[in-house]
């Protein structure tokens, strides 16, 4: 692919409410570099020396240097990160779809760890953890003050070892401990079924190394049961992202060959790339093309894409590509807004940094960074409305987030905070209801309101549009 960001690397999924991280392992060699700022380097050296001589106790040299690197990288934006040996290994495990842990996708909220979603079938799922649960302690360690990376490290470990999580469930006004036995998590990123004669549903929960193969197998199963398929719902709700090549491949499964899926633009020449619906832009070296096994009818089947505030990065690439090419109607609520690309640069055999190197753009050139994909049809989570959408975190809420890089950003914080205050009040009233009345229906079930509306869209019937959702105002533009 020439000077493109090689799709040989990974994309991290689920750490910051779902953050696609396009990663390529490339050498650190660069062309002409700016001269080092000698005065600032001398100041750094002076601080290092003062800590070594004056601090209350001896500090290891390596720790000082690695902490300085980590702080420097983390100060850039929410998605840039320094990887030590252990975290580098864990990062690679996460994108392979296999790791040892409790099985939750997490983000950070008010200094605590918030559950974005328990991975289906995982120890956390079986223990009853729910979306929006807050983790206040991991074993005997208070989470307040821990970095997200440190919290992940403490929850991961060896198979068959136990970890004690203290959970705060706000909507039930209670805190309780849960002991979970760690195990190897083999995430199943594709589910699907024929939901009624002529209509099927496929859900992608992440974009991983196995996702494209699993997707093709699921489509084959569906067409074996329903060869005259009249409509398909592609469900990307709460999909936090994943591998860029998988996102390009899933888009290519539905789009005409050769059309643009996504483009990237950054400071480096190699960050300026366009990815198309062609095998060379989604296949890894030495792999066959699983999309060749798909029935030709898939290119033409009427399609609805379901999204929500938890749909991020790779999900937004797919939704944006299918929307821009008018291949599908996008239905649901405005997505997370993670539109930046991170590249992993090795610093040695087992350490590296993940650095934001570009923004990505939909085929028509729209940046969704800190904005997200706006659905064609806004549909609430339930028949009663989507009352708590304003409380959900998105890219624009993250500290030090990038702007979109486009000129349509206006002040919107006051309106956003007003909506949140109204949602908080509704949440307090909702918390007083019996727990059984507050349970959200399972995705893909007969009680899944958005799925039922997607089916109505496919059949040409009247869709119950949102009572509460509107397009989020653009973020405040910083001077």
UniProtKB/TrEMBL annotation:
Pfam families per the UniProt record, alphabetical: CtpB_N-like (PF22694), PDZ_2 (PF13180), Peptidase_S41 (PF03572)
Domain PDZ: 88-170
Cited SUPFAM superfamilies: ClpP/crotonase, PDZ domain-like
InterPro entries recorded: ClpP/crotonase-like_dom_sf, CtpA/B_N, PDZ, PDZ_sf, Peptidase_S41A, Tail-specific_protease
Biased composition (Basic and acidic residues): 400-441, 469-479
Annotated spans, Disordered: 400-479
Keywords, ordered alphabetically: Hydrolase, Protease, Serine protease
Family: Belongs to the peptidase S41A family.
Protein name: S41 family peptidase
Species per Swiss-Prot/TrEMBL record: Comamonas endophytica
């Amino acid at each position: 692919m020439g000077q493109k960001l090689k799709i040989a690397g990974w994309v991290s999924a689920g750490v910051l409410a779902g953050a696609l991280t396009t990663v390529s392992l490339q050498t650190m060699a660069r062309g002409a570099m700016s001269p080092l700022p000698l005065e600032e380097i001398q100041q750094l050296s002076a601080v290092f020396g003062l800590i070594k001589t004056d601090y209350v106790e001896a500090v290891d040299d390596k720790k000082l240097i690695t902490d300085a690197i980590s702080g420097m990288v983390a100060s850039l934006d929410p998605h840039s990160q320094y990887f030590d040996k252990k975290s580098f290994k864990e990062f690679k495990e996460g994108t392979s779809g296999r790791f040892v842990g409790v099985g939750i996708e997490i983000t950070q909220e008010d200094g605590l760890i918030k559950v974005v979603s328990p991975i289906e079938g995982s120890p956390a799922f079986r223990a009853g953890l729910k979306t929006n649960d807050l983790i206040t302690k991991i074993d005997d360690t208070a989470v307040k003050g821990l970095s997200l990376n440190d919290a992940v490290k403490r929850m991961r470990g060896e198979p068959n070892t136990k970890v004690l999580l203290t959970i705060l469930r706000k909507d039930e006004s209670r805190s309780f401990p849960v002991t979970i036995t760690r195990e190897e998590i083999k995430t199943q990123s594709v589910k699907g079924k024929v939901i009624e004669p002529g209509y099927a549903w496929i859900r992608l929960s992440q974009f991983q190394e196995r996702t494209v193969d699993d997707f093709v197998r699921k489509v084959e199963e569906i067409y074996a049961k329903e060869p005259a398929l009249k409509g398909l719902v592609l469900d990307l709700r709460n999909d936090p992202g994943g591998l860029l090549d998988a996102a390009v491949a899933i888009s290519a499964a539905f789009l005409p060959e050769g059309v643009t899926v996504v483009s990237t633009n950054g400071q480096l020449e190699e960050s300026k790339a366009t990815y198309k619906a062609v095998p060379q832009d989604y296949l890894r070296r030495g792999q066959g093309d699983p999309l060749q096994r798909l029935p030709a009818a898939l290119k033409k089947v009427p399609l609805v894409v379901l999204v929500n505030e938890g749909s991020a990065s790779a999900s937004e690439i797919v939704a944006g590509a299918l929307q821009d090419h008018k291949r599908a109607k996008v239905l649901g609520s405005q997505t997370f807004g993670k539109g930046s690309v991170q590249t992993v640069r090795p610093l040695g055999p087992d350490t590296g940094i993940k650095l934001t190197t570009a923004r990505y753009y939909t085929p028509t050139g729209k940046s969704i960074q800190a904005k997200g994909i706006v659905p064609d049809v806004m549909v609430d989570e339930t028949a009663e409305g989507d009352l708590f959408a304003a409380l959900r975190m998105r890219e624009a809420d993250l500290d030090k987030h990038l702007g979109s890089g486009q000129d349509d950003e206006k002040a919107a914080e006051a309106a956003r905070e007003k909506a949140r205050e109204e949602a908080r009040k509704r949440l307090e009233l909702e918390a007083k209801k019996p727990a059984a009345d507050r349970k959200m229906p399972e995705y893909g079930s007969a009680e899944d309101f958005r799925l039922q509306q997607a089916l109505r869209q496919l059949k040409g019937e009247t869709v119950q549009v949102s009572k509460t959702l509107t397009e989020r105002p653009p973020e405040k533009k910083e001077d």
